[in-house]
Design goal:
The protein is mainly alpha-helical. The protein has 2 helices and 2 strands, in the order αββα.
């Protein structure tokens, strides 16, 4: 028996403490697995966001390039039409083309994947002056007031 002055030490049964520690270790492992999975998902999400941002940037750059190409093409088309109208007026009036017109340079883009290259300007051989055989023939065809193109089919009786 214990002396009356000595306090008694009471505690938990060892089996219950061991069960509690095992359950706590199991919960700790489960939570570490959840954290690891969450970190993996966050890493994948950040990679996907980065790829998305790159794709959006590439799309915006492509749209800007297409807009620039379209503006340049429209300006070039207007210049070609204006020159053609002047040439047509000169041909119809029977006068030679006043100023030799040179064809505009043709742009050939040669970029590699994911890089941009300055267009390569290629100048056609020689000036286009409107005084070659084709234009001589065309002037003659226009002078006789006959319609151009294939002859109309005659109706069979």
């Amino acid at each position: 028996m214990n002396p009356p002055d000595t306090p008694t030490i009471t505690g938990y049964p060892r089996v219950e403490v061991d069960e509690f520690l095992a359950a706590a270790a199991e919960e700790k492992s489960r939570l570490e697995a959840v954290i690891s999975d969450a970190e993996t998902r966050v890493s994948r999400a950040r990679s996907a966001v980065g790829a998305h941002q790159v794709m959006v940037q590439m799309l915006l750059e492509s749209q800007q390039e297409l807009s620039r190409i379209r503006r340049d093409a429209e300006a070039e088309a207007e210049a070609i039409v204006a020159r053609a109208e002047l040439d047509a007026q000169a041909i119809l009036s029977g006068q030679p083309t006043p100023v030799p017109v040179t064809a505009p340079p043709v742009a050939i883009a040669t970029p590699g994947p994911f890089e941009s290259a300055a267009p390569l300007a290629v100048q056609p051989d020689g000036p286009v002056d409107g005084n070659d055989e084709f234009f001589t023939f065309l002037r003659g065809a226009l002078a006789d007031e006959q319609p151009l193109g294939p002859a109309p089919e005659q109706e069979s009786r």
